Amino acid sequence: MSETRHLLHVELGGDRLDRFLSLALPVHSRTTLQRFIAQGFVSVNARVQVRSALKLEAGDEVLVRIPPPAPMNIEAEAIPLEVVFENDDLLLINKPAGMVVHPALGHAHGTLVSAVLARAPEVEQVGETERPGIIHRLDKDTSGLIVIARNEPAQRALQRAFAEREVEKTYLALVDGRPPTASGRIETHVGRDPVHRQRMGVVPASRGRPALTLFHTLEQFDEHALLEVHPHTGRTHQIRVHLSYIGCPVVGDRVYGRRTPTLGASRQMLHAARLRLTLPGEAGAREFEAPLPEDFATTLAVLRHS
């Protein structure tokens, strides 16, 4: 299959290049178009080296070359899924701890995406080839709610809602120690750890992105606490980094917490418990909830009776 070309003329200036393209070519998500720009498939007035944030002027000529889709290498696998809600636009899944969201080095099989493709094959055509349908991610050992788009318009609507912070996310975290206050606000910059490059960390503003997390203590134990956590931004490992930063790492988190897990935890005790969002095509927000997984609930029960 050969590439497709679109020659577009800018009538009114002032728009960013990626926004202009997302309006002119709505079949493609803004993220996909940004990738095309970065890969040199877009030129403005015959100049290829352009940025997504380039401000267009009236009279500009934009050429977009759409490359043929890469072969899909992700295999569908008939893995059971706990579907909390589904319609023609999306799937809302309660992901178990231990399941990787999409294939990566060392995790070619048994992923959430592979399971979704077996249940909803149309997701293969949505978004990026490597992670079709994915709107947001959860770490491998974090359980709970995750949204999968079933078509491109739904993907764009959901991505916009997440990007503009219209989606309310609530996590439950069992932590070592006690937070300095019963409720609080953690506001820092999060970026790549300068020493341990595989980790994220709290860094100076010049080296990271703003990150905001709110928390509230639900239950207090002698050496642990159950927190309700609301991330207002979506930085990589944000909750784990922020809770470690205030001296309350997530129980079982071997990266940002204690090397020897307390309470016999075999994974990090972090659960995406609730999502409140407006579904594509609807006017009002809905709230969805995923119950605590058995290992998390059992650990809490032991604490409550100790």
Description:
The chain has six helices and 13 strands. Strands 4, 5, 6, 7, 8, 9, 10, 11, 12 and 13 form a ten-stranded mixed sheet that branches. It folds into three domains: 4-66, Structural Genomics Hypothetical 15.5 Kd Protein In mrcA-pckA Intergenic Region, Chain A (Roll); 83-161, Pseudouridine synthase (2-Layer Sandwich); 168-304, Pseudouridine synthase. The longest helix is centred in the middle third of the chain and has 12 residues, at 152-163. The radius of gyration is 21 Å and the shape is globular. Strand 12 and strand 13 form a beta hairpin. With 306 residues, the chain is of the alpha+beta class.
Question: What is this structure's SSE topology?
Answer:
Elements: E1 4-9, H1 17-24, H2 30-38, E2 42-44, E3 61-66, E4 83-86, E5 90-95, H3 112-119, E6 143-149, H4 152-163, E7 168-176, E8 183-192, E9 200-202, E10 209-220, E11 224-231, H5 238-245, E12 270-277, E13 286-289, H6 294-304
Parallel strand pairs: 6-12
Antiparallel strand pairs: 1-3, 2-3, 4-5, 5-6, 7-11, 7-12, 8-9, 8-10, 10-11, 12-13
